[in-house]
Specification:
With 162 residues, the protein is mainly alpha-helical. The chain is 57% helix and 11% strand. The chain has two domains: 8-43, no CATH class; 57-160, Alpha-Beta Plaits (2-Layer Sandwich), CATH 3.30.70. It has a three-stranded antiparallel sheet with strand order 1-3-2, covered by helices on one side. A hairpin with a 5-residue loop joins strand 2 (119-124) and strand 3 (130-135).
Length: 162
C-alpha cells in the first residue's frame, strides 16, 4: 500500500486544495484532482526526506506551550530594551554547539531560536555541528547557550529520542 500511496495525508491535502482552488465539486474536478493528488507524491517519492518520528507527543505539547510562553515574554523584553535604553544593546554573533544531528530536531531548534524575539538563527553549520546565532542584546553568550541547551535542545532530544 505504501508503494501505491507513499504519502496518503499529503495526497488528501492536495485533493482538498485542488477542490478549493476550483471552487467546485463537479465529478471531473474531483477525478482530475485525485489523479494529480496521487501522481505528484508518487512521482516525487524518492526525493521525499525520511524524517524521524515523534516518540513523545506529550512532551511535544509541553514544548509548544513553553515556546509560546517564551515568545510572549521575549517580546516584552525586547520592547522594554528598545523603549528603555537602546544604547545599552550589545548585539552578539556566536555558534551554539549542537548535541544532536538529526535533521528535523535541529531544524525545529533553529526555528525556535528564530521565533523567539531577540535571537535569529543565521546558519546551521556543515554536518549539523552548530547553529550560528545572532542575538539582539546579549552580554554573555555562554549564558544564552546554557539556556537554549537546557530549555529547548534537551527537550527536543527527549521528544525525538535522538
Amino acid at each position: 500500500m505504501k508503494t501505491l500511496f507513499p504519502t496518503p495525508l499529503l495526497s488528501l491535502f492536495l485533493l482538498i486544495v485542488w477542490v478549493l482552488l476550483f471552487n467546485s465539486i463537479a465529478p471531473g474536478v474531483i477525478v482530475l484532482g485525485a489523479l494529480f493528488a496521487w501522481f505528484i507524491p508518487f512521482l516525487f517519492r524518492s526525493a521525499w526526506p525520511s524524517f524521524i518520528r515523534i516518540k513523545r507527543p506529550d512532551l511535544a505539547l509541553v514544548y509548544f506551550f513553553i515556546l509560546i510562553n517564551d515568545i510572549v515574554v521575549a517580546n516584552f523584553k525586547v520592547a522594554a530594551m528598545i523603549i528603555g535604553k537602546p544604547r545599552s544593546m550589545r548585539p552578539a554573533l556566536f555558534v551554539f554547539p549542537l548535541n544532536m544531528t538529526a535533521e528535523l530536531p535541529v531544524t525545529i531548534l533553529a526555528s525556535t531560536i528564530t521565533l523567539t524575539p531577540g535571537t535569529v538563527s543565521c546558519e546551521i553549520t556543515r554536518g549539523r555541528k552548530g547553529i550560528l546565532i545572532h542575538s539582539f542584546s546579549e552580554e554573555n553568550p555562554e549564558e544564552l547557550i546554557k539556556t537554549i541547551r537546557n530549555r529547548y535542545e534537551r527537550r527536543l532530544k527527549e521528544i525525538f529520542q535522538c
